[in-house]
Fold this sequence. Notes:
By secondary structure, the protein is α+β, with helices and mostly antiparallel strands. The longest helix has 34 residues, at 44-77. It starts with a helix and ends with a helix. The radius of gyration is 29 Å and the shape is elongated. Helix 2 (44-77) packs antiparallel against helix 3. A 5-stranded mixed beta sheet has the order 3-2-1-5-8. A 5-stranded mixed beta sheet has the order 4-10-9-6-7. The protein is 38% helix and 16% strand. The protein has 9 helices and 12 strands. The structure holds dinuclear copper ion. Residues 137, 140, 176, 211, 213-215, 219, 222 line the site of dinuclear copper ion (CUA).
Amino acid sequence: MRFRIAAVGRLRRWGAVLPLLALLAAGACSPEQYPQTALRPISDYGRIGDDIQTTTLLWAIGVFILVEGALLYAVFRFRGKPTDPEPRQIHGNTTVEIIWTVIPALILAAIAVPTVRGIFETNAVPSGDALKIEVIGHQWWWEFRYPDLNITTANEVHIPVGQTASFHMSTADVVHSFWPPRFAGKRDVFPNRETRLWFKAEEAGEYPGQCAEFCGIQHGRMAFRVKAQTAEEFQGWVAHMQSLGAKPAAAAAPAPDSVQTASAGAKVQGPQQGAAAKDSATAAKPQAAPADPAYAAGEKLFMAKGCVGCHSLQAVNAPKGMIGPNLANVGARSFIGAGSFKNTDENLARWIQDPQAMKKGVLMPNLGVTPDEAKSLVAFLRAHK
Ligand code: CUA
């Protein structure tokens, strides 16, 4: 009876521990469930850090097995009985002390060598044809500028697989930390000082990144996406971005109402152009973007509500020092609010009407936009793909 109670107790104890072990195993094995894992690297830089971690872990496992093994052996082999006399007392043993000092020193050296090598490797200036990307941290979003390609975007950084992306980073306000966990370690960004980070992506896909330095109340919603694309896809994206927002000569003249809009000259894809192409065989319909009344109303509102004061719609020659994220391709992004909310029409409309409810403290104020106005603004922004 007593045995059965003990067995049930043991089972209960393991019952609590097993799910925890399973969870730990899943954490290491499933990037789907835990997408911000650094344990499944998909870049050269990520692999360097992961290799050092694996080396350290193997040493730690070896030490654990040896020490615990010796301990358990001593416990069982030399177990005393209550009737035993007091054992002989010894004090100090120079040989043993030298051994247990030298062995850990050697183990630490074995860990230090690859660690220091990794530090030098990851801090080296990347050689070859690296793609330069400027990263500027803002409370609470990320600006990405490609100086050699003359394009700018926000919160979703596109990189080509197989080519080193070299990030030159700074901040517009406080200290942030740029962290794309599947690709590289954290690197702080500072005002008036450039920090650098580089890596070569090995797998195409969309991966999350996160600000990793507390930077204010919305630090947790200062995320970003890394969109790693094949070389051809990336070239296509660059060409597309370069076709957005290049101001034609005519746009240099003031608009008829004497107000220059950020979208002047911006080339956008109408929300129904795809449908127009499909329908063109059967019937000719007025489908062009500016003819869409919601789009036209949205364009006016973008100016009238003051959106234009903080957001640029220019991907090419984008102005520097803007307060809000660049919106040149906002319609095509996966998330809004710096990786915080899925980029659906519903979320975008909610955001435009009440950003403070979705991301309290964000610099974008509530502008008194009505639901109808929000719908028009969504139609306008969605066309900027
Ligand atoms: Cu930016 Cu935390």
